[in-house]
Design goal:
Structural class: mainly alpha
Organism: Halobacillus amylolyticus
Number of strands: 0
Protein name: Heptaprenyl diphosphate synthase component 1
Distance between the termini: 22 Å
Helix content: over 70%
Largest sheet: none
Order of helices and strands: HHHHHHHHHHH
Pfam families: HEPPP_synt_1 (PF07307)
Radius of gyration: 19 Å
């Protein structure tokens, strides 16, 4: 398994076929497969001595865990009386997240891969604990908030990278996934959509007071962060050439909002 555009698309199709369920599809949208995380995972596995079958299984099962975590994040909470359809969607979203999570366990149990099951289960526990701290405890600073968000975004991949003893791109992965999350949150807010991160920052006591202040701080931080990230990416070893090119283009596409020509 060598990471390439074709390989990534094939993996996406396999993951999509795993999570597709005819009953869920009638009532809730199909889950989004995070291509950036898929690319990073595939690049990590490319440089292991694992068999091609096991590399692919590790990528697919880790992405199933990510999809389960993302799906549970979509569950709405309100104290108000909801309509029947809203309640049903909420219940099905919870069940869908549990279903996707169960799939990773099922696939790895068929391989009798208990150590990898423990690795993913431990990561899930840590990420959920981090989310509770982020959403239900006060933060002392904007930087502390960003540090927690960075861990939440990258911890699953970093735990898997540590398990397969390939941690070279862990730092870059953390920087890129945080930047990507913030760019997505900024875009959602600017388009008038709900941004849980910006909403959280505005609501937290002692944090930034208004959405305008949050957006200004976010933009300033992103400018510095992207510059540092580009330098980190450029320093990756030569055998990560395809990954470097992918991240380089993604930065320009998402942050500068204009694609660049791929390097030869």
């Amino acid at each position: 398994m060598n990471t390439s555009e074709m390989n990534i698309q094939q993996l996406k199709q396999k993951i999509a076929s795993q999570v597709r369920h005819p009953f869920l599809a009638k009532f809730i949208p199909e889950p989004i497969i995070d291509e950036d995380k898929l690319v990073i995972l595939s690049s990590i596995m490319d440089h292991t001595t694992l068999s091609p079958v096991k590399r692919e299984q590790y990528v697919i099962t880790t992405m199933l865990v990510q999809i389960a975590l993302d799906t549970h994040d979509l569950v709405t909470l309100t104290d108000e009386d909801d309509e029947k359809e809203t309640i049903r969607t909420r219940q099905l979203t919870v069940l869908a997240g549990d279903y996707y999570s169960g799939l990773y366990y099922y696939l790895l149990s068929k391989l009798d891969d208990i150590p990898m099951i423990r690795t993913l289960a431990g990561a899930i526990k840590e990420i959920n604990e981090l989310k509770m701290e982020l959403y239900y405890k006060d933060v002392d600073s904007f930087q502390e908030f960003l540090a927690s968000l960075k861990k939440i975004e990258s911890l699953l991949i970093q735990r898997v990278a540590t398990y397969v003893q390939k941690t070279t791109i862990n730092d870059m992965a953390g920087e890129w996934l945080l930047a990507k999350r913030l760019i997505d949150e900024k875009t959602s807010y600017q388009e008038g959509k709900f941004s849980p991160v910006i909403d959280l920052l505005v609501r937290k006591p002692g944090s930034l007071e208004t959405s305008t202040q949050v957006m200004l701080s976010l933009e300033q931080m992103l400018q510095k962060h992207i510059t540092r990230l580009e330098a980190t990416v450029s320093q990756l070893p030569i055998h990560f050439k395809w990954l470097k090119s992918y991240i380089h283009m993604a930065i320009h596409d998402k942050f500068y909002e204009k694609p660049i020509v791929e390097e030869g």
